Amino acid sequence: MNVAPGKNAVSTIPFDHARVDRLMEEAGIDVLLATSKHNTQYLLGGYKFIFFAAMDAIGHSRYLPIVVYEKGGPDHAAYIGNRMEGAEHQNNPFWTPTLHAACWGTLDAANLAVEHLTKIGKGDARIGIEPAFLPSDAYTLIRKALPDAKLIDATDMLERMRAIKTKAELEKLRTASELITDSMLATIAWAREGTTKTEIIEQLRREETNRGAHFEYCLLTLGASHNRAGSPQAWKKGEVMSIDSGGNYHGYIGDLCRMGILGEPDAELEDLLAEVEAVQQAAFSKVRAGTLGGEMISYAEGVLKKSKVAPYTDFFAHGMGLITHEAPFLMTNHPVTYEGTYAEKPLEKNMVLSVETTMLHRTRGFIKLEDTVAVTETGYAMFGDRGRGWNRGGVA
């Protein structure tokens, strides 16, 4: 299906195009070729093709959605997708004036992108691409077909584009966090003595799915073990459970960690979780618009350094949105490989952060809290703010 350019896309464009134009200008980009699922979803106003939501490969190739967006020229925007997406357009039309729902792989998608760039007079422009999300065969085709174009890494520009959340995005992130929290607490209450890690993970998947979230992963520990992979290990009386889950709601990530106990926590466990909570609260106290990202990190790390659990406890914070670990990037290579480019920049209203403190205790096990907060002008709003103490297992 090919839909010809329309006359006025500005009235329906689903993002702040003036801000995106400004970011493109600062990055020296004339036209974008967005090819990742998360950035195409953002630029399409939340749309993601369900057929490829959990996979990419088909036949000898893979799904490659492409959004073409020209700086200052939304009337020249195009979406290049799979042939089956024509039906999606019939039901809920895409905003882009041009649609090519005609592809089955990477090369036909890249060919259509080249044709469109040439048609709008951008065959020799500065073209922003996503190197980590542009297959080598598609890149090679574009490079050969447009020898006079300059291909520019647009990754940082696109991350900055998504860093400030809209009201609708914040609500989706809140919903995702609430659904994940409810699911984890229900799973802890359901699990009993003898329940295995594999069974617990499967129960969590059901809980999240039944609540309307898309399950992505569960990192789980029982007892003194620090191993978070699924296994036949069974929960025993008096042992702790650390349940860390990521799922999404309409593409937006919920990523939290809560603690369970089979029985009643003793004084040592209460004290250990309180140490973790103290670091979390220290970080929260520095979250507000205008505070340097690095100031929040250093303050929480300073509180942790003075704690008796410091030798075996770690603090970490990162941005959240359509993906986990997105802008703002606050810490360098800790543990995900990227530079903490936002450490010296002020936090901005409607940024969303994941804040996590992890203790690897030699005998009591893996003790962790992970929370999601949105930056406000005066502080923060926490999403999924429940179950942050010791939650009892076997009570459902």
Strand-residue proportion? 25-35%
Quantity of strands, as a count: 18
Number of domains: 2
Main structural class: alpha+beta
Tell me which CATH architecture of the largest domain applies here.
Answer: Alpha-Beta Complex
Whole-number average pLDDT?
96
Organism: Mesorhizobium temperatum
Domain Creatinase N-terminal: 18-164
Pfam families: Creatinase_N, Peptidase_M24
Protein name: Peptidase
Key words describing this protein structure:
single chain, 396 residues, alpha+beta, Creatine Amidinohydrolase, Chain A, domain 1, Creatine Amidinohydrolase, seven-stranded mixed sheet, 18 strands, 32% helix, 27% strand
Write a structural description:
Pfam families: Creatinase_N, Peptidase_M24. This is Peptidase. Residues 171-377 form the Peptidase M24 domain. The chain has 396 residues and is of the alpha+beta class. The chain has two domains: 17-162, Creatine Amidinohydrolase, Chain A, domain 1; 167-392, Alpha-Beta Complex (Creatine Amidinohydrolase). It has ten helices and 18 strands. It has helices at residues 17-27, 37-43, 85-91, 106-119, 136-145, 155-163, 167-190, 197-210, 267-284, 293-305, and strands at residues 2-3, 31-34, 57-58, 61-62, 66-70, 73-82, 98-103, 126-129, 150-153, 214-222, 240-249, 252-261, 313-320, 324-326, 352-361, 365-375, 380-383, 390-392. The strands form four sheets. Strands 1-7-6-5-2-8-9 form a seven-stranded mixed beta sheet, sandwiched between helices. A five-stranded antiparallel beta sheet has the order 14-13-15-16-17.
